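S.,

Sequence below, as promised.
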Amino acid sequence: MSKLIPVVMAGGTGSRLWPLSRESFPKQFLSIDDSGFSLLQQTLQRLSGLDGVEVAAPLVICNENHRFLVAEQLREIDQLATNIILEPIGRNTAPAVALAAHLAAEEDDDSILLVLAADHLIKKVENFHAAIKTAIMHAAEDNLVTFGIIPGHPETGYGYIKRGSALSSQCFKVDAFVEKPCLEKATEYLASGEFSWNSGMFMFKTAKFLQELQQFSPEIFSTTQQSVVDSQRDMNFIRVDQEIFKHCPSDSIDYAVMEKTRDAVVIPIDAGWSDVGSWTSLWDVSEKDALGNVNVGEIISIDSNNNYISSDGALVATIGLDDLIVINTNDALLISTKDRVQDVKKVVDELKKRNLHHFRQHSSAYRPWGKICDIDNGEHFQVKKIIVRPGEGLSVQRHLHRAEHWVVVSGTAKVNVEDKEFFLSENQSTFIPAGSVHTLENPGKIDLEIIEVRSGFYLEEDDIERLHDRYGRV
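The prediction came back faster than expected:
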Protein backbone atom coordinates (compact mmCIF):
# COMPACT_ATOMS: atom_id res chain seq x y z
CA MET A 1 0.00 0.00 0.00
CA SER A 2 1.27 3.50 -0.85
CA LYS A 3 2.39 5.81 1.93
CA LEU A 4 -0.25 8.32 3.05
CA ILE A 5 1.07 11.87 3.56
CA PRO A 6 -1.24 14.27 5.45
CA VAL A 7 -1.12 17.79 4.01
CA VAL A 8 -2.60 20.25 6.50
CA MET A 9 -3.47 23.79 5.44
CA ALA A 10 -2.98 26.04 8.48
CA GLY A 11 -2.68 29.47 6.88
CA GLY A 12 -6.06 30.97 7.72
CA THR A 13 -6.58 34.14 9.75
CA GLY A 14 -10.32 33.75 10.36
CA SER A 15 -12.06 36.38 12.47
CA ARG A 16 -15.49 34.85 13.04
CA LEU A 17 -14.46 33.32 16.37
CA TRP A 18 -13.27 36.65 17.77
CA PRO A 19 -12.35 37.42 20.53
CA LEU A 20 -10.69 34.02 20.93
CA SER A 21 -9.47 33.89 17.33
CA ARG A 22 -7.20 36.78 16.41
CA GLU A 23 -4.82 37.65 13.60
CA SER A 24 -1.75 36.49 15.51
CA PHE A 25 -3.54 33.45 17.00
CA PRO A 26 -6.34 32.28 14.67
CA LYS A 27 -8.83 29.52 15.35
CA GLN A 28 -6.73 26.57 14.08
CA PHE A 29 -4.42 27.12 17.07
CA LEU A 30 -7.22 27.32 19.63
CA SER A 31 -8.38 24.59 21.97
CA ILE A 32 -12.16 24.91 21.79
CA ASP A 33 -13.16 21.83 23.80
CA ASP A 34 -12.04 20.05 26.95
CA SER A 35 -9.36 17.99 25.17
CA GLY A 36 -6.65 20.58 25.82
CA PHE A 37 -5.47 20.26 22.21
CA SER A 38 -5.84 22.80 19.43
CA LEU A 39 -7.82 22.18 16.24
CA LEU A 40 -4.51 21.76 14.37
CA GLN A 41 -3.29 19.20 16.87
CA GLN A 42 -6.60 17.33 16.80
CA THR A 43 -6.47 17.26 12.99
CA LEU A 44 -3.24 15.25 13.19
CA GLN A 45 -4.14 13.21 16.26
CA ARG A 46 -7.30 11.84 14.69
CA LEU A 47 -5.17 10.13 12.03
CA SER A 48 -3.82 7.71 14.66
CA GLY A 49 -5.51 4.32 14.74
CA LEU A 50 -5.75 3.93 10.96
CA ASP A 51 -5.01 0.20 11.04
CA GLY A 52 -3.14 -1.08 8.00
CA VAL A 53 -2.33 2.42 6.71
CA GLU A 54 1.22 3.77 6.71
CA VAL A 55 0.80 7.42 7.72
CA ALA A 56 3.92 9.49 7.07
CA ALA A 57 5.01 12.67 8.84
CA PRO A 58 2.63 15.49 7.91
CA LEU A 59 3.37 18.49 5.75
CA VAL A 60 1.85 21.60 7.34
CA ILE A 61 1.44 24.78 5.29
CA CYS A 62 1.30 28.13 7.04
CA ASN A 63 2.43 31.74 6.70
CA GLU A 64 5.61 33.28 8.05
CA ASN A 65 3.93 34.96 11.03
CA HIS A 66 2.61 31.71 12.48
CA ARG A 67 5.67 29.52 11.83
CA PHE A 68 6.87 29.25 15.44
CA LEU A 69 3.35 28.72 16.71
CA VAL A 70 2.90 25.79 14.30
CA ALA A 71 6.32 24.39 15.24
CA GLU A 72 5.51 24.53 18.95
CA GLN A 73 2.12 22.84 18.51
CA LEU A 74 3.67 20.08 16.38
CA ARG A 75 6.45 19.63 18.96
CA GLU A 76 3.87 19.20 21.72
CA ILE A 77 2.34 16.18 19.94
CA ASP A 78 5.67 14.79 18.67
CA GLN A 79 4.93 15.58 15.00
CA LEU A 80 7.71 18.10 14.37
CA ALA A 81 10.34 17.53 11.69
CA THR A 82 11.47 19.67 8.77
CA ASN A 83 7.85 19.58 7.68
CA ILE A 84 6.47 23.14 7.84
CA ILE A 85 6.08 24.77 4.43
CA LEU A 86 6.09 28.57 4.61
CA GLU A 87 3.94 30.37 2.07
CA PRO A 88 5.56 33.74 1.25
CA ILE A 89 2.12 35.07 0.31
CA GLY A 90 -1.38 33.55 0.35
CA ARG A 91 -2.37 32.14 -3.02
CA ASN A 92 -5.40 29.97 -2.09
CA THR A 93 -5.51 26.20 -1.78
CA ALA A 94 -4.35 24.97 -5.20
CA PRO A 95 -0.84 26.52 -5.03
CA ALA A 96 -0.49 25.52 -1.37
CA VAL A 97 -1.25 21.87 -2.09
CA ALA A 98 0.90 22.01 -5.24
CA LEU A 99 3.91 22.99 -3.12
CA ALA A 100 3.30 19.98 -0.87
CA ALA A 101 2.81 17.68 -3.87
CA HIS A 102 6.08 18.74 -5.52
CA LEU A 103 7.95 18.20 -2.24
CA ALA A 104 6.28 14.82 -1.66
CA ALA A 105 7.10 13.74 -5.23
CA GLU A 106 10.82 14.35 -4.56
CA GLU A 107 10.69 11.69 -1.84
CA ASP A 108 8.08 9.25 -3.14
CA ASP A 109 6.26 9.72 -6.44
CA ASP A 110 3.90 6.86 -5.52
CA SER A 111 2.66 8.48 -2.31
CA ILE A 112 -0.95 9.48 -1.65
CA LEU A 113 -1.83 12.92 -0.27
CA LEU A 114 -4.62 13.45 2.26
CA VAL A 115 -5.44 17.17 2.18
CA LEU A 116 -7.04 18.53 5.36
CA ALA A 117 -7.88 21.92 6.82
CA ALA A 118 -6.33 22.65 10.20
CA ASP A 119 -9.48 24.25 11.62
CA HIS A 120 -12.16 21.60 11.17
CA LEU A 121 -13.86 19.64 13.93
CA ILE A 122 -14.73 15.96 13.45
CA LYS A 123 -16.62 14.17 16.20
CA LYS A 124 -17.21 10.73 14.61
CA VAL A 125 -13.62 9.63 14.10
CA GLU A 126 -14.48 6.00 13.30
CA ASN A 127 -16.64 7.11 10.36
CA PHE A 128 -13.83 9.39 9.22
CA HIS A 129 -11.33 6.52 9.35
CA ALA A 130 -13.65 4.29 7.32
CA ALA A 131 -13.97 7.02 4.68
CA ILE A 132 -10.18 7.42 4.51
CA LYS A 133 -9.70 3.69 3.91
CA THR A 134 -12.34 3.74 1.17
CA ALA A 135 -10.70 6.81 -0.35
CA ILE A 136 -7.27 5.13 -0.43
CA MET A 137 -8.67 2.33 -2.61
CA HIS A 138 -10.18 4.77 -5.10
CA ALA A 139 -7.20 7.15 -5.07
CA ALA A 140 -4.93 4.22 -5.87
CA GLU A 141 -6.98 3.77 -9.07
CA ASP A 142 -6.11 7.34 -10.17
CA ASN A 143 -9.29 8.98 -8.92
CA LEU A 144 -9.23 12.38 -7.25
CA VAL A 145 -11.34 11.97 -4.13
CA THR A 146 -13.25 14.67 -2.31
CA PHE A 147 -15.09 14.04 0.95
CA GLY A 148 -18.69 15.25 1.01
CA ILE A 149 -20.50 15.87 4.29
CA ILE A 150 -23.99 14.39 4.44
CA PRO A 151 -26.13 17.48 5.20
CA GLY A 152 -28.28 17.60 8.31
CA HIS A 153 -30.13 20.80 7.37
CA PRO A 154 -30.49 23.16 4.36
CA GLU A 155 -27.26 25.16 4.78
CA THR A 156 -26.67 28.26 2.61
CA GLY A 157 -23.12 28.88 3.80
CA TYR A 158 -21.46 25.89 2.09
CA GLY A 159 -20.85 24.82 -1.48
CA TYR A 160 -22.41 21.49 -2.50
CA ILE A 161 -21.32 18.42 -4.47
CA LYS A 162 -23.85 16.52 -6.57
CA ARG A 163 -23.08 12.85 -6.88
CA GLY A 164 -23.37 10.92 -10.13
CA SER A 165 -23.03 7.22 -10.92
CA ALA A 166 -21.84 4.85 -8.21
CA LEU A 167 -18.34 3.34 -8.27
CA SER A 168 -19.11 1.46 -5.04
CA SER A 169 -21.65 1.66 -2.24
CA GLN A 170 -19.60 4.44 -0.61
CA CYS A 171 -18.11 6.28 -3.60
CA PHE A 172 -19.66 8.14 -6.56
CA LYS A 173 -18.52 10.03 -9.61
CA VAL A 174 -18.84 13.79 -9.15
CA ASP A 175 -21.69 15.10 -11.29
CA ALA A 176 -21.24 18.79 -10.39
CA PHE A 177 -19.78 21.24 -7.89
CA VAL A 178 -22.45 23.76 -6.90
CA GLU A 179 -21.91 27.24 -5.44
CA LYS A 180 -23.52 28.30 -2.14
CA PRO A 181 -27.28 28.14 -2.77
CA CYS A 182 -30.22 30.19 -1.58
CA LEU A 183 -32.40 28.61 1.11
CA GLU A 184 -34.95 27.30 -1.40
CA LYS A 185 -32.26 25.53 -3.42
CA ALA A 186 -30.56 24.20 -0.29
CA THR A 187 -33.87 22.72 0.83
CA GLU A 188 -34.25 21.02 -2.57
CA TYR A 189 -30.72 19.63 -2.35
CA LEU A 190 -31.40 18.18 1.09
CA ALA A 191 -34.65 16.54 -0.01
CA SER A 192 -33.06 14.94 -3.09
CA GLY A 193 -30.42 13.02 -1.16
CA GLU A 194 -27.99 13.54 -4.05
CA PHE A 195 -26.00 16.41 -2.59
CA SER A 196 -23.26 16.71 0.03
CA TRP A 197 -21.60 19.73 1.59
CA ASN A 198 -18.20 20.46 0.11
CA SER A 199 -15.82 19.87 3.04
CA GLY A 200 -12.61 20.99 1.33
CA MET A 201 -10.91 17.67 2.20
CA PHE A 202 -9.30 15.65 -0.60
CA MET A 203 -7.23 12.58 -1.36
CA PHE A 204 -5.25 11.72 -4.49
CA LYS A 205 -2.02 10.17 -5.65
CA THR A 206 0.76 12.73 -5.70
CA ALA A 207 1.67 12.00 -9.31
CA LYS A 208 -1.98 12.04 -10.46
CA PHE A 209 -2.68 15.43 -8.86
CA LEU A 210 0.43 16.97 -10.43
CA GLN A 211 -0.53 15.49 -13.79
CA GLU A 212 -4.02 16.99 -13.64
CA LEU A 213 -2.70 20.30 -12.32
CA GLN A 214 -0.22 20.52 -15.19
CA GLN A 215 -3.00 19.86 -17.69
CA PHE A 216 -5.65 22.23 -16.32
CA SER A 217 -3.61 24.90 -14.48
CA PRO A 218 -0.15 24.83 -16.08
CA GLU A 219 0.94 28.20 -14.66
CA ILE A 220 0.26 27.07 -11.09
CA PHE A 221 2.11 23.83 -11.80
CA SER A 222 5.20 25.50 -13.23
CA THR A 223 5.55 28.35 -10.72
CA THR A 224 5.11 26.08 -7.69
CA GLN A 225 7.50 23.53 -9.17
CA GLN A 226 10.19 26.16 -9.67
CA SER A 227 9.51 27.61 -6.20
CA VAL A 228 10.24 24.21 -4.68
CA VAL A 229 13.37 23.63 -6.78
CA ASP A 230 14.88 26.78 -5.26
CA SER A 231 13.56 26.13 -1.73
CA GLN A 232 15.71 26.27 1.41
CA ARG A 233 15.57 24.19 4.61
CA ASP A 234 15.80 26.30 7.76
CA MET A 235 15.40 24.55 11.13
CA ASN A 236 11.93 22.96 10.91
CA PHE A 237 10.86 25.12 7.97
CA ILE A 238 10.83 24.78 4.20
CA ARG A 239 11.15 28.20 2.58
CA VAL A 240 10.09 28.30 -1.06
CA ASP A 241 11.41 30.95 -3.44
CA GLN A 242 9.45 34.13 -2.72
CA GLU A 243 10.21 35.95 -5.97
CA ILE A 244 8.96 33.04 -8.05
CA PHE A 245 5.97 32.14 -5.88
CA LYS A 246 4.54 35.66 -5.79
CA HIS A 247 3.80 35.35 -9.53
CA CYS A 248 1.69 32.22 -8.99
CA PRO A 249 -2.03 32.59 -9.83
CA SER A 250 -4.42 32.42 -6.88
CA ASP A 251 -6.98 29.63 -7.20
CA SER A 252 -8.74 26.95 -5.17
CA ILE A 253 -8.29 23.23 -5.76
CA ASP A 254 -11.90 23.08 -6.90
CA TYR A 255 -11.47 25.68 -9.64
CA ALA A 256 -7.94 24.68 -10.63
CA VAL A 257 -8.46 20.91 -10.88
CA MET A 258 -11.52 19.24 -9.38
CA GLU A 259 -14.16 20.96 -11.54
CA LYS A 260 -12.20 20.21 -14.72
CA THR A 261 -10.93 16.68 -14.26
CA ARG A 262 -12.93 13.65 -15.41
CA ASP A 263 -11.65 11.63 -12.48
CA ALA A 264 -13.26 13.45 -9.55
CA VAL A 265 -15.18 11.21 -7.14
CA VAL A 266 -17.00 11.96 -3.89
CA ILE A 267 -17.32 9.90 -0.72
CA PRO A 268 -20.29 11.12 1.38
CA ILE A 269 -19.65 10.79 5.13
CA ASP A 270 -21.45 11.43 8.40
CA ALA A 271 -18.50 12.42 10.57
CA GLY A 272 -19.92 14.97 13.00
CA TRP A 273 -18.10 17.57 10.91
CA SER A 274 -18.00 21.33 11.37
CA ASP A 275 -15.76 23.98 9.84
CA VAL A 276 -16.30 25.96 13.08
CA GLY A 277 -17.20 28.97 10.97
CA SER A 278 -19.09 30.79 13.72
CA TRP A 279 -19.91 30.60 17.42
CA THR A 280 -23.33 29.20 16.52
CA SER A 281 -21.82 26.37 14.46
CA LEU A 282 -19.60 25.54 17.43
CA TRP A 283 -22.66 25.49 19.71
CA ASP A 284 -24.34 23.14 17.20
CA VAL A 285 -21.66 20.43 17.50
CA SER A 286 -20.76 20.84 21.19
CA GLU A 287 -22.03 18.72 24.05
CA LYS A 288 -24.83 20.56 25.89
CA ASP A 289 -26.36 20.34 29.33
CA ALA A 290 -30.03 19.55 29.97
CA LEU A 291 -31.00 23.17 29.15
CA GLY A 292 -29.09 23.29 25.89
CA ASN A 293 -26.21 25.32 27.29
CA VAL A 294 -22.55 24.92 26.40
CA ASN A 295 -20.43 26.23 29.28
CA VAL A 296 -16.65 26.51 28.93
CA GLY A 297 -14.80 27.71 32.02
CA GLU A 298 -16.28 28.74 35.36
CA ILE A 299 -19.92 29.44 34.50
CA ILE A 300 -23.12 29.64 36.58
CA SER A 301 -26.38 29.62 34.56
CA ILE A 302 -29.73 30.20 36.26
CA ASP A 303 -32.93 29.95 34.21
CA SER A 304 -30.82 30.30 31.04
CA ASN A 305 -31.25 28.17 27.94
CA ASN A 306 -29.46 27.35 24.67
CA ASN A 307 -26.45 29.61 25.29
CA TYR A 308 -22.77 29.24 24.43
CA ILE A 309 -20.76 30.81 27.26
CA SER A 310 -16.97 30.73 27.49
CA SER A 311 -14.63 32.41 29.96
CA ASP A 312 -10.88 31.90 30.21
CA GLY A 313 -10.59 33.54 33.61
CA ALA A 314 -13.33 35.37 35.49
CA LEU A 315 -16.50 33.67 36.67
CA VAL A 316 -19.47 34.39 34.40
CA ALA A 317 -23.05 34.13 35.75
CA THR A 318 -26.24 34.44 33.69
CA ILE A 319 -29.83 34.81 34.87
CA GLY A 320 -32.81 34.43 32.55
CA LEU A 321 -30.84 34.63 29.28
CA ASP A 322 -31.59 32.54 26.21
CA ASP A 323 -29.97 31.97 22.81
CA LEU A 324 -26.88 34.08 23.47
CA ILE A 325 -23.17 33.83 22.74
CA VAL A 326 -20.99 35.16 25.58
CA ILE A 327 -17.20 35.01 25.13
CA ASN A 328 -15.04 36.48 27.88
CA THR A 329 -11.25 36.84 27.54
CA ASN A 330 -8.64 38.76 29.52
CA ASP A 331 -9.05 41.87 27.39
CA ALA A 332 -12.36 41.59 25.51
CA LEU A 333 -15.98 40.53 26.04
CA LEU A 334 -18.37 39.54 23.24
CA ILE A 335 -22.14 39.28 23.78
CA SER A 336 -24.33 38.43 20.79
CA THR A 337 -27.58 36.72 19.96
CA LYS A 338 -26.94 33.45 18.16
CA ASP A 339 -28.62 34.66 14.97
CA ARG A 340 -26.22 37.62 14.66
CA VAL A 341 -22.84 35.91 15.10
CA GLN A 342 -21.95 36.39 11.42
CA ASP A 343 -21.67 40.09 12.28
CA VAL A 344 -18.68 39.44 14.52
CA LYS A 345 -16.61 40.33 11.48
CA LYS A 346 -18.06 43.85 11.67
CA VAL A 347 -16.61 44.18 15.17
CA VAL A 348 -13.20 43.11 13.87
CA ASP A 349 -13.46 45.61 11.02
CA GLU A 350 -14.24 48.36 13.53
CA LEU A 351 -11.24 47.35 15.67
CA LYS A 352 -9.02 47.59 12.61
CA LYS A 353 -10.45 50.99 11.73
CA ARG A 354 -9.65 52.25 15.24
CA ASN A 355 -6.23 50.55 15.14
CA LEU A 356 -6.90 48.72 18.40
CA HIS A 357 -4.72 45.72 19.21
CA HIS A 358 -7.69 43.48 20.07
CA PHE A 359 -8.12 42.24 16.48
CA ARG A 360 -4.43 41.42 16.16
CA GLN A 361 -3.24 39.80 19.34
CA HIS A 362 -4.19 38.52 22.78
CA SER A 363 -2.80 39.67 26.08
CA SER A 364 -0.63 36.55 25.79
CA ALA A 365 1.63 36.08 22.78
CA TYR A 366 3.71 33.11 21.68
CA ARG A 367 7.39 33.39 20.81
CA PRO A 368 9.74 30.74 19.39
CA TRP A 369 11.31 30.49 22.85
CA GLY A 370 8.05 30.37 24.82
CA LYS A 371 5.36 32.84 25.81
CA ILE A 372 4.89 36.41 27.06
CA CYS A 373 1.79 37.54 28.97
CA ASP A 374 0.49 40.98 29.95
CA ILE A 375 -0.11 41.52 33.68
CA ASP A 376 -0.52 45.28 34.03
CA ASN A 377 0.01 48.46 32.01
CA GLY A 378 0.35 52.14 32.87
CA GLU A 379 1.43 55.32 31.15
CA HIS A 380 5.15 54.71 31.69
CA PHE A 381 5.31 51.07 32.80
CA GLN A 382 4.31 47.57 31.71
CA VAL A 383 4.40 44.33 33.71
CA LYS A 384 4.81 41.05 31.82
CA LYS A 385 5.27 37.38 32.64
CA ILE A 386 7.90 35.71 30.46
CA ILE A 387 8.02 31.91 30.09
CA VAL A 388 11.15 30.47 28.44
CA ARG A 389 11.22 26.76 27.58
CA PRO A 390 14.22 24.62 28.57
CA GLY A 391 17.17 25.09 26.21
CA GLU A 392 15.67 28.17 24.57
CA GLY A 393 16.64 31.82 24.77
CA LEU A 394 15.79 35.37 23.76
CA SER A 395 17.76 37.20 21.07
CA VAL A 396 20.82 39.32 21.84
CA GLN A 397 19.09 42.69 21.89
CA ARG A 398 18.83 46.19 23.23
CA HIS A 399 16.07 48.76 23.74
CA LEU A 400 16.69 52.46 23.21
CA HIS A 401 13.70 53.80 25.15
CA ARG A 402 12.96 51.39 27.97
CA ALA A 403 14.69 49.82 30.96
CA GLU A 404 13.76 46.36 32.26
CA HIS A 405 13.73 44.77 35.69
CA TRP A 406 13.64 40.94 35.76
CA VAL A 407 12.54 38.87 38.77
CA VAL A 408 12.84 35.07 38.54
CA VAL A 409 9.70 33.31 39.76
CA SER A 410 10.74 29.73 38.97
CA GLY A 411 13.60 28.00 37.20
CA THR A 412 17.11 29.24 36.48
CA ALA A 413 18.04 32.14 34.21
CA LYS A 414 21.34 32.57 32.40
CA VAL A 415 21.69 36.32 31.82
CA ASN A 416 24.23 38.31 29.83
CA VAL A 417 24.31 42.12 30.13
CA GLU A 418 27.07 44.03 28.32
CA ASP A 419 29.19 40.83 28.12
CA LYS A 420 28.81 40.11 31.84
CA GLU A 421 27.33 36.62 32.31
CA PHE A 422 25.61 35.49 35.50
CA PHE A 423 22.89 33.16 36.75
CA LEU A 424 19.67 33.99 38.62
CA SER A 425 17.52 31.55 40.58
CA GLU A 426 14.11 31.91 42.23
CA ASN A 427 13.47 35.26 43.94
CA GLN A 428 16.62 36.82 42.49
CA SER A 429 16.50 39.81 40.16
CA THR A 430 18.51 42.09 37.87
CA PHE A 431 18.12 45.50 36.25
CA ILE A 432 18.86 46.24 32.57
CA PRO A 433 19.31 49.93 31.76
CA ALA A 434 18.01 51.35 28.47
CA GLY A 435 20.55 50.87 25.67
CA SER A 436 22.28 47.87 27.30
CA VAL A 437 22.97 44.84 25.11
CA HIS A 438 21.48 41.81 26.84
CA THR A 439 20.11 38.32 26.42
CA LEU A 440 18.40 35.63 28.48
CA GLU A 441 18.51 31.81 28.29
CA ASN A 442 16.97 28.89 30.14
CA PRO A 443 19.76 26.37 30.86
CA GLY A 444 17.55 24.24 33.08
CA LYS A 445 15.13 21.34 32.57
CA ILE A 446 11.93 23.12 33.65
CA ASP A 447 10.25 26.25 32.32
CA LEU A 448 11.84 29.52 33.36
CA GLU A 449 9.26 32.05 34.58
CA ILE A 450 10.21 35.70 34.98
CA ILE A 451 8.28 38.82 35.91
CA GLU A 452 9.48 41.67 33.70
CA VAL A 453 8.79 45.30 34.62
CA ARG A 454 9.35 47.73 31.75
CA SER A 455 9.73 51.44 32.46
CA GLY A 456 10.23 54.40 30.16
CA PHE A 457 8.45 56.85 27.91
CA TYR A 458 8.08 54.41 24.95
CA LEU A 459 7.24 50.78 25.72
CA GLU A 460 5.98 49.27 22.45
CA GLU A 461 7.26 45.98 21.03
CA ASP A 462 9.01 47.66 18.11
CA ASP A 463 11.58 49.21 20.48
CA ILE A 464 13.90 46.26 19.97
CA GLU A 465 17.15 45.95 18.06
CA ARG A 466 18.11 42.30 17.56
CA LEU A 467 21.87 41.93 17.22
CA HIS A 468 21.76 38.14 17.00
CA ASP A 469 18.85 35.70 16.99
CA ARG A 470 18.99 31.91 16.97
CA TYR A 471 15.58 31.76 15.27
CA GLY A 472 16.49 33.95 12.28
CA ARG A 473 14.18 36.84 13.20
CA VAL A 474 15.05 40.41 12.24
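The chain has eleven helices and 30 strands.

Coffee later?
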